[in-house]
Predict the structure of L-lactate dehydrogenase (Cytochrome).
Amino acid sequence: MFSEPLTIADLQRRAKWRVPKMFYDYADSGAWTESTYRANESDFGKVKLRQRVLVDMTNRSLETTMIGEKVSMPVALAPTGLCGMQHADGEILAAQAAEAAGVPFTLSTMSVCSIEDVAEHTTKPFWFQLYVMKDRDFVGNLIDRAKATGCSALVLTLDLQILGQRHKDLINGLSTPPKFTPKHVWQVATRPFWALEMLQTKRHTFRNIAGHAKGVSDLSSLSVWTAEQFDPKLSWDDVVWIKERWGGKLILKGILDAEDAKMAARTGADAIIVSNHGGRQLDGARSSISVLPEIVDAVGSEIEIHMDGGIRSGQDVLKAKALGAQGVYIGRPFLYGLGAMGKKGVTRALDIIRKELDTTMALCGERNINEIGHQIIAKADFD
Ligand SMILES: Cc1cc2nc3c(=O)[nH]c(=O)nc-3n(C[C@H](O)[C@H](O)[C@H](O)COP(=O)(O)O)c2cc1C
């Protein structure tokens, strides 16, 4: 029915066929009109590359570092909530695929599989993403759990003090696990492969939270707790105590403004991620790739800069690298792979991106990812 997936879009089509609508839509959506979600992707098309010829293209290398960790290419898996609803045990499978590919995996606070679940099923340290909740005891405890399981970086998300609205989630009545209304039962029943795999795992809810947060004893108290707990008062002072409590490598995620980037650099964090949360928070904000050069100008000499949002190919990775990102993160590309084919699909997504990155680098006349910069960007066509 489907031919071999050759692009991330091929994986996306398969995921749509295999994953119940409410969870597929949860991934493939942005806030309100989705204008920022779309711009993240389409703005990459405005960046043009220089084609070079008769340059030695042998012995190419994509190997580099992100926050000092060796990576086989400058691509990490972004933290995404509810991976375990794209595919049973999704976080474990994605972490294993990332480990095998030699790239970092970032586990979300809002994951289905817990930090301990993922640690038990992997052999190398992964990164943990923290949402700051009002219940600071819970937050402190979460940081300690990430430390205890050997996570090698904490990714602190700054752009979700309150939740942006995604219309599709409201219309679909998204919940974890799915509710038993006729609409939801139909959505699950029409995705039998997904459902059969889901029946074979015990991991169906937010396992970083259930059993760890005060007053959360059952599923209905969990959903109330989660909705109420994001902290609208989160401030730069909180970054200081989190950094201290954690004591390891810290990455600040969700910077989209040069002023904020300067504040972030002053915290002494190890890196920032230029990000608008994949267009899921402030609709109408600029695309990540269009903001990246300004932020590199503002703080590039002080702090390592990463970016995410809209990367759908290895070409996009190369463009971000050329504009000053030391590394990038992919969210939906690996979620589509996961939904389409489980662990094999995440591996496929990473292979597709790696191949495109390598070939593009060669055709731009370059052999080493660490030497990529503005020299590969073509002058705009119609200045
Ligand atoms: C389904 C989904 C869930 C997400 N959940 C989280 C999350 O729990 N924490 C977080 O910091 N970012 C979250 N994000 C944002 C991603 O980390 C990342 O910024 C974004 O996906 C990058 O854009 P891309 O999907 O176009 O690659 C989520 C994104 C998606 C698509």
Notes: The chain is about 45% helix and 10% strand.
